[in-house]
Amino acid sequence: MTTSGFHSNSAIDPEARRKAPGRRLGSFGGVPASDRMAVRCRLISRLFAVGACLAFAGCVPINRLRIDNSFKGLDAALIGTARSGGVLRVLVVHGMNNHRPGYSDPLFARLAPCLRMHETKGSEVTNSITSNGRLFGYLRMADYAGGRRKMRVYEVTWSPITYRVKLAQFALDQSLTPKRQWLNGMLKSGLMDTALSDAVLYTGSYRKNMQFPIQFGIKRLLDDGVAPRDQVCFITYSLGSYMTFDTLRSLRRASEAGGRFGISRQQVDRLARQTTRIYMLANQLPLLELTELSQPVAAAAPHEAPPTRARLRALLYPAGQPPKLGSPLRDFIGMREPPAGKAPGAKLPLPKRLQIVAFSDPNDLLSFPLEPRNYTNSSPADPVTAANVNIIIAHWSLFGIVSNPAQAHDGWDNDRRAVHLIAFGGKATSRAR
Prior knowledge:
alpha/beta, single chain
């Protein structure tokens, strides 16, 4: 056997090894170690060059911002509360997947400088939410100040009550992750097992357990003594939007039946009337409202022409009849009606205008825009305005055909434009920019 060239035979002649002490033989046969390294370096360099070309050619920056109706931000609310000597109270509720207390820190770390505020030292408090010795979640509170501006943030974390349920239910499925292709495994584990399973749990009888941490947060906000000069804001993520307003609806119904958590119907209604801002990030209301459909919808006849959008809408929202599809947001707006005995136009010591803003990335598979049917339930004396912000937060597209869906769903806290819009609002755009 010679000691030069390449060999397909894995058995190496010991004599050849002895005669060529300066050479290390193996899959590269008798190529010197120094030459072997040079070959590898050239190969790696070429691979990097090809990878760089693919990266530059395939990763396309994408950008879009479209606002269908003008709206104001937190800054305008703080101007109002500063003038009246009140406090802006912000309830934050996360969406699907597992979260820990402090998940909203990145958002408020960016919002505070925009609003000319800073977190008050020593104001941060985290309370465990327990019942009968069982942990349901956490409530984390923090105060922000800047001149006459005051803001208190109530951050609700409800995912501890679903975390171990999902671990136990999908333990066998999770053990198969190493056997899956990387992308399939990531989607199965990160999307199906730990995220969408929360929405499935909420649509079933486990709902009341998931509502408990939100109820606790609402009770604490009310116990702080919401004064007429205060304003209330909701910032909700994903599934948390539906959960928050469904929980408020449940609290009001429970109050009518004799009270729950010591919260009266009047307190819930007053909270609704003092709410001036709702920001829903990765809004899922239209999707989850499907769980409220109970009446059958007529099926299409054979060979029937595709119905128009107006006819499709009439299937769920027939003219002159109650909607077939319920909406917790619409019911929440209905709570803002003046108390019995007061004229519709009577002046209330409460903010009258409510703004609802739904943020969505068009490449997010799990978010949807708002339509008037999702929120139209107010009287002329209490106008409600809504806006859809269609904005790309997953800024890179691979070959112009796909962008990161996880970033498109979860990247709100780190997107400069989205944070700026929450802080200062935005004007309606005539076209995407």
